[in-house]
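Entry for the shared binder. Reason: the reviewer on the internal report wants the predicted structure included alongside the sequence.
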Amino acid sequence: MAEILRPGQAGTIESSDIMISIAPAKPGAGLVLDLVSPVIKQYGEQIQKVIRDTLREYGVVDAIVHANDKGALDCTIQARVIAATLRATAKEA
């Protein structure tokens, strides 16, 4: 299980990208996800699924995640979540 030790961030707010910010949460809090996106009605569930699945793959169970999406593809979302997680867990990419 990976523990979020400090805030981590990855991505930009440019078109076709997503800004992911991850911060520590109290043990047992679970994943608290805040998503902002112009396509939230069409793709919000899918974006959240990619974020949650990627965090689960890295063993993150307690974190506060803010995602500011600008139309990113799933592969971009996954890459940004991985980079932010590695930064927040103090592991090198």
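Summary line for the report: The chain has one domain: 8-88.
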